[in-house]
TrEMBL record:
PROSITE patterns: MOSC (PS51340). PANTHER family: PROTEIN YIIM (PTHR30212:SF2). The lineage of its organism: Bacteria, Bacillati, Actinomycetota, Actinomycetes, Pseudonocardiales. Residues 29-163 form the MOSC domain. Pfam families: MOSC. Gene3D superfamilies: PK beta-barrel domain-like. InterPro entries: Benzoxazolinone_Detox_Enz, MoCF_Sase_C, Pyrv_Knase-like_insert_dom_sf. It comes from the Bacteria. GO terms for molecular function: catalytic activity; molybdenum ion binding; pyridoxal phosphate binding. This is Molybdenum cofactor biosysynthesis protein. It comes from Saccharopolyspora thermophila.
Length: 218
């Protein structure tokens, strides 16, 4: 499916752009050694805003190097592995097209795709682009959050192997488009994948699906 180009862990940053917590671990840097991925997170990484990050279904975040290149060209600034706040920079993977609940073997770990990343003001502040939340949402290529089903070590150069893929076929980008881009025509399709979402997201998406379908049947 693809390969790990870099494994990244946080350097804690402070500043006016870091939001209500006043510090953030979004600035992640590649490491040369293998890193252990555990159900509670990536060893050596730091999560500062635990209200919005760091749950078991956000144990790790993956983003494609091709998307870093895309934004480098659009914004005319060099973005390198870790700059999207990702623990895994993947090459040749197209992670945002993964199916919700899809399971990957990456190095010695088994990871499960749980959902899309939602851009925030801290992300925009880190990149120094005020319009980034809107532009990133419109582009819709978010990367994926991952749960760790089987802990293990992951290093640059490890392959990404798909172990299983749910038959409902609801992709990460489709869920994001329904939730964040107003694609109401995706409601019934997205509903098929609700059971594979982590519980906090499941309830929110199911509620929105019901409301959308109800409006459509009036």
């Amino acid at each position: 499916m693809g390969v790990v180009q870099a494994v990244n862990v946080a350097v804690v940053r402070t500043g006016d752009w870091t939001g209500r917590v006043g510090r953030t671990g979004i600035d992640k840097r590649p490491v040369e050694h293998a890193v252990r991925f555990e159900p509670t997170g990536v060893r050596g990484d730091v999560v500062c805003d635990t209200k919005h990050h760091g749950a078991w279904y956000q144990a790790a975040y993956a983003f494609d190097v091709e998307e870093l290149r895309y934004w480098s060209a659009v914004l005319r600034k060099e973005l390198v592995p870790g700059n999207a706040g990702e623990n895994l920079t993947l090459a040749g993977c197209d992670s945002t097209s993964a199916v919700i609940g899809e399971r990957w073997r990456v190095g010695g770990a088994v990871l499960r795709v749980t959902g899309p990343r939602t851009p925030c003001r801290v992300f925009a502040g880190f990149w120094g682009v005020k319009s980034l939340v809107k532009r990133f949402t419109e582009h819709g290529r978010t990367g994926v959050y991952l749960a760790v089903e089987e802990p293990g070590e992951v290093a640059a150069g490890d392959t990404v192997e798909v172990l299983s893929r749910p038959s409902h076929g609801v992709r990460v980008d489709e869920l994001f488009a329904f939730q964040m881009r107003g694609r109401q025509e995706l409601a019934e399709h997205v509903a098929r994948g609700v059971a594979d979402l982590p519980e906090p997201w499941r309830e929110d998406v199911a509620r929105k699906v019901r409301a959308t379908v109800a409006v459509g049947t009036r």
